[in-house]
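Quick one: structure for this chain?
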Amino acid sequence: MVHKVSLFFAILAGVSSLATLLFSVWKYHLSRRVKLAAVSTLTVEKNGKFIAGITISNESQRPVEVQSVRFDIFSWDQSPKLKVNGILKFQRAIDLLYELEGTWFFPSDVAQTDYSDKMPCYLRAEQSMAVYIDLDKMMEEHFNYGEGGHFENNLFFRFSMRFLSINIKTTEGKSFKLRAYREIRHYLYVKYKEDSRILAYPIVKA
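Got it. Here's what it folds into:
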């Protein structure tokens, strides 16, 4: 009888130790996990500018440094290129995608207002930051930079605006994606759907 009681308490102690170990591992994992919450809005300033506001909150249990906050509208590099179509254009896009040639340019980077939090931005636990992007300046930068009109046709532009996202990246290389607020997507589509520049691939002269 005494032996059975001793065995029972030994098993109980083992289970308790295992549970404590698993809980400690879970707590450590939780403390290292990066968790960001983000929301986007659209405001119209007195000067008529349409501004996208993105608020990011650090819901992690540790500090996080935000490296970039961008709309997923991009342009190719600005170096002079031969105008190509069909399979050659597709192959060029693949080269750029894997950074075999040039770099990507994100126009939202230069369309941030002066009152945006500067990046990289260090956030303590439960701390927030805000980024404000001038939507029309973003689109003008997009059209004016290199091969800007990458939407190809109006249907693809509509598709791109419907699923337009905001990409948030930390200095540790972790990425988070937030679908842009519906009024942001609506504004960009309605204003630029008839703009011929979304369809044009201008020749960049040397």
